[in-house]
Specification:
The complex is a heterodimer of chains A (159) and B (789). Chain A has 159 residues and is an alpha+beta fold. Chain A has six helices and five strands; from the N terminus they run E-E-H-E-E-E-H-H-H-H-H. In chain A, strand 3 and strand 4 form a beta hairpin. Chain B is globular. The chains are: A alpha+beta (159), B alpha+beta (789). Chains A and B meet through helix 2, helix 3, helix 4, helix 5 and helix 6 of A and helix 1 and helix 18 of B.
Chain lengths: 159, 789
């Protein structure tokens, strides 16, 4: 049994037949080839599969594709191509805030959500907001530095 | 780099924090991990895994599963064994090490919970898992060995009866007059140190895609691995192929830390299935499978004693270490290395005249255990540094002072440790001085005293460590393993003036590609943007070891340096002819050949144009070679030891048992630093893995050897909110063995972090007169030590 779903993924309309049990992260990866959404634990703990659903960052493994019917979905590929997080990505590169890169898409989307809500988060607030995204490589400090630097640069750009 | 004339190059990138060239694709989600790959006709495998820790497989009924939708094949261990031969994880230089043959899929018995007993291949992973649930396996449960203590009991069931007992390996070492030293000591401190079994938790689980092309009779294996050539050898050997019939390709790897450098039964089975089915077969471990089958590490119980004189002089160490490794010694690096390292490393930073050690390695019916980041180091460091602190406390001496009095002098090199480890040059005293310049020790002690009066308990802990890097053939090769200790680099000038380097070391996020590119750009004399690095492909790189044991920079980087220098000389021969100048007075800077007055004379693009398209304009007796190959392996010292020191400042809540990390400092000496940013981030990442072990991480097993927390909700790892900022400082003592002088830095953080934290906790709890020497330091453990619960 399959269900027909329609959604807007990275700005493009998508229509597909999906099995009811397929979660959104698998759908994005397998049906659409958007492999920047990574699978780490498939029980909502690690944050590797984070995507934006109707503007809010959610865990792609904790929602079925059928639940995203009619929704607007944005993945790391979409926000990369739109240029929305180009400055954050540049800050991650400059600070070496990624090593293996597997957590990075989820980390970037989550950090961007924080920066949209809070233009001046302190280090503790950044650590708190990213505390649902697991990174085994960096020890987090470089990531915190990169997010902090981006927040500062965005504030200065506004003045 | 004063005194490093070989590195004193125009536009050198050595010791510069340049960004890694491969970050763009990872930042845009456009990397290619094995998990992401698809091939035409690809099928997926799921494994039926034993629910019992030790059981005889009575029968396997695959009929229902075979009729399930999408099923391609259901394969049992006996069927797979016709294609893939078993292996035994022993090395001849670890005398007496024994293990039993291990099959890719269990044939008669399953020996731990999670061992594969059948494989189900289907057109999707979901269908394979559905059918796997319908494979009916009848088991007869067998007596189990639940833990290492039970393994060596006289009446313990023997896991492999043909081996006689459960003792896989034992090593004893006796140096000096240990009993006399303890008898003469002014103070003796002793403790039992317990280290929880933990694991790597790579964010990308293990993944393999194996493709057998029956037309070419060739197996291509896409694998997240640290050692492609090692895997090529092993796949060929056990699948009955010539090495030339196997290609191993390693693209992006989602974390490894030693996890993905071993031979895994399910990965071997996947490759064998590709051969049987003559089509691509993919296996990606799910998170439960990761916890049940990725190698575990540590799980040591180590009794230790230290003898000291009144003035703090260390007279002797004695240790007795026990570890449990699961039912098999892991192939091909073996599961005896960690215990062997503990014997080698205890007391290592200090002058230790007398030393006695015993290490025992026992088989158990838990998941297999093997080398994970900083193999043996955290155990040796915690035991050594814990005992040094306990001795200082008995003598009423400051922890810094007792270390200062016993650390090997910086002018004492070359020298060796009590265990015979050879040290070319270390810098313990300079490191200690550097660390003290970074922390306000007197200020922290004053703050500690002030807060204690308010019922707030803060502590500072120190850990001095040594780290094995740049291993020679002494590590594996001499024991008969086909694991290369040398690495190679091929560097060429392309027609458009670009430089391409093929290297045998690999990337799992450390920055290998950047490090090699920096070295090549510096050695040849070109902008970094002109260098492209190719790695992780046995068809397209020179033969070599890969990236593990903190060896990629010190060994692979040195090979790249030498190849880059050789290519520069080759280019300058051509330039000498074109410019009618002596090549010895020419050099290359910024992609231009420069003369003795440093004036640009001709660009590399022009040289390439002449060589490739107008060789007719060159002398008839001159054959240009715009390519160079060099290899390197350390020969004078079996290992390039590094050293360092860590300090932890933390607060213990004596009502809840919670520990808050407030600050952490590391000073380490990895010789020449190629990229300071990458080294610092290796240190920080390594520290945080050590902090995970210190505070959170443990694979919990029950009496039936069932793992109780095989998921990321129950197995705790360090998350951003729990971690402190980490301050990193350096002392640089280059190895004279290589031109670059670089040693490894990948494991130093993990080596000493837990020891610093445990010592800080004991320092915080000093007013209560209690000590803890078991990790992880859970709130429960702290409260029990305090007698609260």
């Amino acid at each position: 049994m399959k269900n027909r779903v329609r959604m807007i993924v990275n700005g493009d309309p998508v229509e597909a037949e999906v099995a009811p049990r397929q979660h959104l992260a698998d759908f994005l990866r397998e049906a659409l080839g958007l492999t920047g959404t990574h699978i780490g634990c498939e029980h909502g703990v690690c944050g590797a599969c984070s995507v934006r659903l109707d503007g809010a960052v959610i865990r792609g493994c904790l929602i079925f594709a059928v639940q995203a019917d009619g929704a607007r979905v944005e993945t790391i590929e979409g926000v990369s191509d739109s240029g929305e997080i180009a400055d954050l990505q540049a800050a991650f590169a400059a600070r070496n805030a990624l090593q293996c890169g597997y957590c990075t898409p989820g980390m970037l989307l989550t950090a961007q959500e924080l920066l949209m809500q809070n233009a001046a988060p302190d280090r503790e607030a950044i650590r708190e907001y990213l505390s649902g995204n697991y990174c085994r490589c960096t020890g987090y400090q470089a990531i915190i530095d990169a997010v902090e630097a981006t927040a500062k640069a965005r504030r200065e750009a506004k003045q | 780099m004063s005194g490093q004339s070989a590195l004193d190059r125009p536009n050198s990138y050595i010791s510069r924090a340049v960004p890694r060239p491969n970050l763009g694709r990872l930042l845009q989600g456009r990397g290619q991990y094995v998990s992401d790959m698809n091939l035409p006709r690809m099928v997926h495998v799921a494994f039926v895994r034993s629910p019992y820790a030790h059981a005889r497989i009575v029968s396997i009924d695959t009929r229902t599963a075979e009729a399930a939708p999408g099923i391609v094949a259901v394969v049992t261990g006996a069927e797979l064994a016709k294609v893939c031969t078993p292996w035994i994880g022993v090395l001849s230089h670890l005398q007496g090490l024994k293990s039993a043959p291990q099959h890719a899929i269990a044939v008669e018995r399953a020996c731990w919970v999670g061992e594969a007993v059948a494989a189900v291949v289907a057109s999707s992973r979901a269908e394979a898992e559905d059918a796997a649930a319908q494979v009916e396996v009848v088991y007869e449960q067998l007596p189990i060995v639940p833990d290492m203590e039970a393994a060596l009991a006289p009446d313990a069931p023997v896991i492999h009866p043909e081996l006689g007992d459960n003792l896989a390996f034992e090593r004893r070492l006796e140096v000096g007059e240990v009993d006399a030293a303890f008898a003469q000591a002014d103070a003796v401190a002793e403790a039992e140190f317990v280290f929880g079994r933990h694991t790597g938790v790579t964010l990308e689980p293990r993944a393999i895609l194996a493709d057998w092309n029956a037309g070419e009779e060739r197996l291509t294996v896409y694998l997240g691995t640290q050692a492609p050539h090692m895997m090529q050898t092993i796949l060929a050997k056990h699948l009955g192929l010539a090495e030339a019939q196997v290609r191993v390709v390693c693209k992006d790897v989602g974390g490894s830390f030693g996890i993905k450098v071993h031979v895994y039964a399910d990965e071997m089975a996947t490759a064998a299935l590709a051969k049987i089915l003559r089509r691509p077969v993919k296996y990606v471990a799910d998170r439960v499978e990761s916890f049940l089958t990725d190698i575990h590490a540590r799980d040591h119980r180590c009794k230790g004693r230290i003898a000291v004189a009144k003035d703090g002089t260390i007279l002797a160490f004695e240790i007795d270490d026990l570890t449990g490794i699961g039912p098999y010694s892991v192939y091909p690096r073996t599961s005896a290395i960690e215990a062997n390292q503990v014997v080698n490393l205890v007391g290592g930073p200090y002058v230790v005249p007398n030393y006695r050690a015993r290490a025992r390695v026992a088989f158990t019916n838990r998941n297999v255990m093997c080398q994970y980041r900083a193999v043996g180091h955290p155990i040796a460091c915690s035991v050594t540094e814990g005992l040094v602190d306990f001795a200082a406390r008995k003598l009423g001496m400051d922890p810094i002072e007792i270390r200062r009095r016993n650390l090997i002098r910086d002018d004492a090199y070359p020298t060796q440790s009590a265990s015979g480890m050879k040290f070319e040059a270390l810098s313990h005293h300079a490191t200690l001085a550097k660390l003290l310049s970074m922390i306000d020790y007197a200020g922290l002690r004053a703050e500690q005293a002030r807060l204690r009066a308010q019922g707030i308990y803060r502590g500072i802990g120190f850990a001095t460590f040594i780290e094995i890097t740049n291993p020679s053939a002494a590590f594996y090769g001499v024991g008969g393993a086909r694991i290369s200790s040398q690495d190679g680099a091929v560097v060429r000038l392309d027609a458009a003036g670009g430089i391409v380097c093929q290297t045998s070391v690999t990337e799992q996020g450390q920055g290998t590609e950047a490090m090699i590119a920096q070295i090549i750009a510096s050695a040849v004399g070109v902008p970094l943007s002109k260098v492209r690095v190719i790695l992780g492909d046995t068809d397209n790189t020179p033969y070599g070891g890969g990236t593990w044991a903190s060896r990629a920079t010190g060994i692979g980087g040195e090979a790249a340096w030498r190849a880059g220098v050789a290519l520069r000389e080759n280019i300058l021969k051509v330039a000498g002819i074109i410019l009618q100048a002596d090549p010895a007075v020419l050099d290359i800077a910024d992609g231009q050949v420069i003369d003795a007055e440093k004036r640009p004379r001709v660009g590399l693009e022009e040289i390439a144009r002449i060589v490739y398209f107008r060789p007719d304009t060159l002398p008839a007796d001159f054959q240009p070679e715009l390519i160079a190959t060099r290899h390197y392996t350390p020969k004078k010292y079996p290992f390039a030891f590094t050293n360092g020191m860590q300090a932890s400042w933390l607060e213990v809540d004596t009502r809840t048992g919670f520990i808050t990390l407030l600050d952490h400092w590391v000073v380490e000496d990895c010789g020449t630093v190629i990229n300071p940013q990458l080294v610092d981030e290796q240190i920080r990442g390594g520290v945080v893995q050590g902090l995970g072990a210190a505070l959170y991480e443990k694979c919990l097993y029950d009496a039936r050897a069932q793992m109780l927390n095989a998921n990321m909700a129950d197995y705790l790892v360090p998350m951003a909110a729990d971690m402190p900022d980490i301050h990193v400082g350096h002392v640089q003592t280059p190895t004279a063995e290589s031109a670059l002088g670089a040693k490894g830095a990948g494991e130093a953080g993990t080596a000493g972090a837990a020891a610093a934290v445990v010592n800080a906790v004991n320092d915080a709890l000093a007013p209560f007169g209690v000590t803890i020497s078991e990790i992880p330091l859970t709130p429960e453990r702290v409260l029990k030590a305090l007698g609260v619960i």
